[in-house]
Structures are given as structure tokens and as C-alpha cells.
Amino acid sequence: MKRVYNFSAGPAVLPEEVLKEAAEEMLDYRGCGMSVMEMSHRSKMYQQIIDEAEADIRDLLQIPDNYKVLFMQGGASLQFAMIPMNFMKNRVADYIITGQWAKKAHAEAKLYGTANAIASSADKTFSYIPDCSDLPISEDADYVYICENNTIYGTKFHELPNTKGKNLIADISSCFLSEPMDVTKYAYVYGGVQKNVGPAGVVIGIIRDDMITDDVLPGTPTMMKYKTYADNGSMYNTPPCYGIYICGKVFKWLKNMGGLEVMKQKNEEKAKILYDFLDNSKLFKGTVEPASRSIMNVPFITGNEELDAKFVAESKAAGFENLKGHRTVGGMRASIYNAMPKQGVEDLVAFMEKFEKENA
Ligand SMILES: *Cc1c(COP(=O)(O)O)cnc(C)c1O
Fold first, then answer.
1. Where are the beta strands (DSSP E) in the chain?
2. What class does CATH assign to 259-358?
3. Mean pLDDT in each 10-residue stretch from start to end of the chain (360 residues)?
4. Best substitution site from 83, 98, 171, 173 to test ligand 1's pocket, by max atoms within 8 Å of Cβ?
């Protein structure tokens, strides 16, 4: 068996310990004679799995009692519609456009009301986070929406926008559990787990109690109401049982590592190795303004498309997978999520140094 260093943006690398444990429990989960995949979601055994997962994520993020944790499906992309359907009471919302995912969420919200783009970094191909300290927030805005970490462009909000008292909603898909987070700053925050938390198929939402209501837009399907999930412990229907089980294992792994403060340190350390190299390289350069850099997704280029392609091909042959940039932007991107070991980043930098010498 050979494991590669997987720099995929998502689905992405998971902790090896978690995969091994899941493999050991595959045929017989803790003496019950079946896999978690085969188990009734109404069984005691499964209830314990989902309850423990919820308790552990609450513990990791120190989620206060007035917030509920929801396990959903449909990917982050279904949330783009669920958010306006549930929260756009005045049919007005403000969006900050920092990349593809914010753009898609904004476009979806327009199906339901007036979705204003109150700031954007499109002028410089989303290579920075705009100043959000004094934005023209709409008086009757139901919420202000951000994509907190921009997976494709490699930027991150290091400071949350001043929403002038409006509810903040954030897509944290690609920075979920990468560092501690003050949940109380958000009315609703969510992420697809396949970036930094687990296998594709699960979306976790953290919602403040007062946001959970029956007062949703007319025609909102039952399965797209947050209240349906909140009222039924995320089991109105069959949840993505196996995915939630793996997420639960990742939560335990994070707790064993020392929690999110430790993860933040590790992630910053890994990102620094790569950024320091990029800042000093004569061949490679990062594409993001330093103050807006993500510690999860690191895009870089050589400035020569042929050389980029050569790098992607040679790195793959050397055991570094998925370094090709997003199909819409080209270049390279290294996603260095929680489960990417420091050694993986060090080895990548050594490989880049070698490539730089050979192609000087
Ligand atoms: C990947 C990603 C999405 C889309 O996720 P799906 O689960 O494929 O719908 C949305 N937002 C962010 C920030 C992402 O990284």
C-alpha cells in the first residue's frame, strides 16, 4: 500500500488514523455484527454515533446552548438556496463577492429577492478580501453573506465584516475546524464537510435559535427548512449516516490532537513554510495579497503556463497529487487541510526547490 500526499481542494485528505479505525470497524461495528452503513438510523447504536458527533463538535467549537447543530445533505450548493428561502423575510440581502462560491450563492439568492453585491474583489481576480469595515449595508437587509475562506482563490477573511447589526451568514466549507471560531458572531454558519472535516455528502450547519422558524418563503420544501432538521435531531429522514460517523471520528481525532487552538498553530506553521518559500522563490509566486492569505488553500504560479503544466505533471509523478489549480483559474493550488502532515508541505517545498533549479 502506498499513500500519496494529496493536496486536493475537496474531497480531500483525511487523517490516516480515522481511515484505519473505520476500516477496522467496517464489517463489525463494536460487536453489533454489521457495518455502520447497514445500520438503522433509528437504532440505539446509531443514535449514540450522531449524539457523540454533535457533542464533540460542540466541544471543539465551544458552541453555546442557544445554537443548534444540524447535519444535512445537498452540499454547500443547496445551502445557497436554503439560506434565502429561510432567512430572506424582507426579500433583501447583502452579499460580499470574494470568489466563485460567493458569486454562486449571490446568483441563487437573486431567485428569491433583491440580493445586493455590496463589495467585491473581482477587479483583481479575487486576490484579496475587500475592506469591509464600513460597507453600504442595506437598511432592510435580512442578512449579510460571506464566503469566509475562498477555496479557489486562496483568500480568507481575517476580520469579519462590520454588518452594522445585521445577521452574518458565512460559508466556512474550506476553513471548518481549521482554527477556533467565535460562533456567536454569526446567525448561521455552515460548511460542506468534504474539504476539511469528512467525506462528501454531509453539510453541517450551526444556527442561532431565533433563526429557526416556520416563517419561511412560500413554497419552501419541508426538506429545505432548517426547522425540519432542528425539530428532528437531523433525522426527519434518513441522514447521511456513514458520513456523519466519519465526521465524528475526525472530531475525536481533533480533540486528541489538542483541539482547535493546536490545529491553528499547526496549520499556520504549515502555511508559513509554503508562503515563505513562495515569497523567496525566483520561479514560483503566490497569487494572493499577503494580508488576505488563506492557511488552507495556497494558489501559486510560475507565470508560464507550459511550466505550470510541467510542474503539475512532474509533481504528480513524484507523489504529490492534485496540485493543479481550479479549472477556472489555472496555475497550481496546494490545499493543506488539517490532515495534511507538516512533512507533506516540507517535501513539497523541497520538490519545488529542485524544480526551480532544474528550470532556471
Ligand atoms: C467546495 C465548496 C462549495 C461547494 O460545495 P458542494 O458541496 O460541492 O456544493 C461551496 N463553498 C465553498 C467555500 C467550497 O469550498
1. 5-6, 67-72, 92-97, 114-120, 144-147, 149-150, 155-156, 168-171, 188-192, 203-208, 285-286, 297-301, 320-321, 332-335
2. alpha beta
3. 94 98 98 97 98 98 98 98 98 98 98 98 97 98 98 98 98 98 98 98 98 97 98 98 98 98 98 98 97 98 96 97 90 98 98 96
4. 173
